Amino acid sequence: MDQTDLRDILERYQQGTCTAEEKRLVENWYQALGNERELQLTPEEQETVRLNLWNRIAEQTIATEEDNPEDRSWLAAPAARWAAAAVLALGLGLGAQQFWPAAKPKVAGPTTAAVQWVVYPNTGQQVVGITLPDSSRVQLSPGSQLKYPRTFGAKQRPVYLVGKAFFKVQRDTTRPFQVYTAQMLTTVLGTSFTVQAYQGQKKAVVEVKTGRVRVSPRVVANASVSKALPAAIVVLPNQQAVYSPERQQLQRELVAQPVQLKSQSFVFDDRPVPEVLTALEQAYGVHIVFDSKALANCTVTLALRNKSLYGKLDVLCKTLGATYEEVNAQILFHGPGCQGS
User: Fold this and answer.
1) Cα–Cα distance between 271 and 267 in angstroms, integer?
2) Which residue would you say has higher pLDDT here, 107 or 153?
3) Is pLDDT larger for residue 65 or for residue 244?
4) Alpha helices of 91-180 — where are they, by DSSP H?
5) How far apart are CA 312 and CA 120, in angstroms?
6) Which domains does the chain have, with CATH numbers?
7) What DSSP state is assigned to residue 189?
8) Torsion over CA of 220, 224, 230 and 235, rounded to 10 degrees?
9) φ and ψ at 172, to 5 degrees?
10) What's the rounded Cα separation, in Å, for the pair 185 and 142?
11) What is the mean pLDDT of the segment spanning 117-143?
12) Which of 61, 210, 215, 231 is most buried, taking the most CB atoms under 10 A from its CB?
């Protein structure tokens, strides 16, 4: 349930077309917050109130699950989130006042404005480019939504994602860049990576292109919590973090098609196999585990240009009668060895 759905339920309530259950929940929420008087807010102020309320509800949901994972409180129920739509969009009741910054006396010189958020939903069919306040770039995929502050703070750079986006982050060691999804928190200083975390998707994925990122799992409202959350992991280029909230399993894997990170000709003329494997390892940044002593007397003459990493390994294995497998983002190369001359 995203903010567009929340606006829809409120609009139906205002038009008198919502269900009896939705109407009851909306009115109960409004009564609970108090409606003794209305706040006279500008459209911009109402948007700030709505976003602040949305953030508070999301934080309360996560906090409740972390404190008592077995208790699926009313905040985790879709119907209750529909009820919260009334508060998020109306921005009228007395309860909204607690989320609005208290008025400060005017003083001479510059003043600090309340944090304002930009919500960008990509409802089209093409990827949309977005430039963030720190000049970081985002490629937002169709059916995705990004929320970010108009101005980043002094200590961190948080953004909120539903769906899929590619990030190219400006390096700033003093302000970590943080991508929040319902399932994961991805923290970086400066790098490029893709996050995919659509609503209803069983697994969330963070794929690193350059640099390194730290991926931490988060509690998910509809997950069956049976054990402690897995520890955070660091993900390097050509690796991806895959997190299953239901199974509470966070794994580091190689991406489907590792890209070449360093220049290499991949033409070998009667060269030792360990040299070939080392060249592949350095070019792709992928650790390859092999028995250097067993393969010391094995030499090959190969031209491996215009092939993927796995294509190169396939040719090498066919030549030697060897095999390989991927384990924890590493390649384990199994070769029979060669007799010495």
Assistant:
1) 10
2) 153
3) 244
4) none
5) 42
6) 3-99 (no CATH), 117-254 (2.60.120.1440), 267-334 (3.55.50.30)
7) S
8) -50
9) -155, 100
10) 21
11) 95
12) 215
